[in-house]
């Protein structure tokens, strides 16, 4: 059951507890207007849920500010079949939640996020012991916590069946810790190492060899990485579908290196690529990336200030299945650089580019399948140009 973003009261939660004791899944995340005077009644309501919903397997309590370690203890102790408890943006949940985790060894997913940036959450030995007790753990999610290599090595020691690992914006661990974990847990499918500032291209190349089943990876804000890190990922991870590597550095002229070109391997599985806000990315880089991912469907180049229509045109020729293209804030883009049909393109974002009516005419002629076109702050287009698009792109549902 999903309670859609409503103003939740403790009485509502008690009503659920009284009337729906057979619920197995309950999503109460991100309630609107949860006031301080609601906290006591909501706390009691969640406690009532833990006592009544005896079949409960999954619960999402994200942004319930009153959720603390003690309430998590009640949930884990009372809900015998609990497998997943999501507590994102719950500032009162600390490493002291270890006592709760010990109560429920059947947990398969754990989610912890530091919301109060002024307070660092330090991992304790008790917490590490509690994680090791979760033998069926498939999803490990930490955001903003100060973790340690000891924690990662302990997870590795247990060879937990983890498929999803998120350590976004975490501190306190090093390459040694993550290598230790991934060398033992090689069935990871979803990996998020955002803001891992120690990672460099060599690290990513080595880690990629440990991830044969990887489907999705996020390496955004890893500032020591360049686009060269993408190529070993594509080569070593044949199941890879999605790559996000935003806010990273793209080296100039590296593509001219013959040894680099020799290592490039086509990955027909890759469908999603985002290098948004990588301010130094050049046409040559995205052309090469397109060449090794011919079945790409979604490409995000937002705020790639050096990209021009010459690069975009070659990308669209190499990747004819692209459906979603974000060129917002690509301030040098005058057009799509196309003189051929692009029938698969459905969503095109040209916010803050320098496209004009002539470019819109070509787009309307070549991109007949457009469903959504975003033209915010495109100062060189007129009403006439927009009307032409509306007239020709008969499937268009939204234009901004």
Automatic annotation (TrEMBL):
Coiled-coil segments: none
Domain of life: Eukaryota
Protein name (database record): F-box/LRR-repeat protein 15-like leucin rich repeat domain-containing protein
Pfam families according to UniProt: DUF7885 (PF25372)
Regions crossing the membrane: none
Signal sequence interval, chain numbering: none
A GO BP annotation: SCF-dependent proteasomal ubiquitin-dependent protein catabolic process
Domain annotation F-box/LRR-repeat protein 15-like leucin rich repeat: ranges: 44-185, 269-392
Gene3D superfamilies linked to this entry: Ribonuclease Inhibitor
A GO term from the CC aspect: SCF ubiquitin ligase complex
SUPFAM superfamilies: RNI-like
Natural source organism: Trifolium subterraneum (Subterranean clover)
